[in-house]
Amino acid sequence: MPADKKFRLQLPESRKAEASDRKRDRVARAKPETSARAVLRSLKETAGAEDILERVPDFGELALWQEIAYFSVCGKSGSARWLDIWDADHFDGFTDMQRCVNDCRAWFSADGFATWGSAETKTGRVNCYFNAPAAANYVCNARLQSYPATARAVVECLIDNSSFGPLSWSGTIDQPHPCTLSAGGHHFRIRQVSGSFFFLSLTVYRV
Q1: Taking residues 162-186, what's their average pLDDT?
Q2: Could you give the residue ranges of the DSSP H alpha helices within 112-161?
Q3: Is the domain 36-206 a CATH 2.60.120.260 member?
Q4: Strand (E) or helix (H) holding 51
Q5: pTM recorded for the entire structure
Q6: Domain residues of the chain, as ranges?
């Protein structure tokens, strides 16, 4: 079937060529997995932890933590049901799709890629849907990596429609999000605000 009549062939000319051996920096791989002990340590180091631990001391008892769901680009386990990713970016030779799957991570770009035709949007979204087996306290740990490692990225994390507020970091972070959930299905969402980052994993613990 021919193209619409509104489309008309043209003969553009471009005399500015780029070197074919362009180099792109490799990004050090960060493991998607982490330990409950490391997540608890991160929780205790986060502002506001003292108030939460005073109200719900069980959050500070590692022996009570039970992993119930795990999400990463290359696999799910436990009560993890759906991992939805919107507006992830494919940058061949750097974070192409196969490499992202091999490294178990998804990349969301921001500024600095207009040369290659990027619209430089900040519309990356991650949705992790899991089943909470009972009404209880939970910790949702988002493992993320900024790019470059020295630059800051900002995301907003939500449990269902309740926001935890803006999260700013550089390098690789384990950021626990404590919450009280009813039994049944819940969404943990990550919304890109600024900066480039990798989604590595989400681990959900029942406390």
Answers
A1: 94
A2: none
A3: yes
A4: helix 49-55
A5: 0.85
A6: 36-206
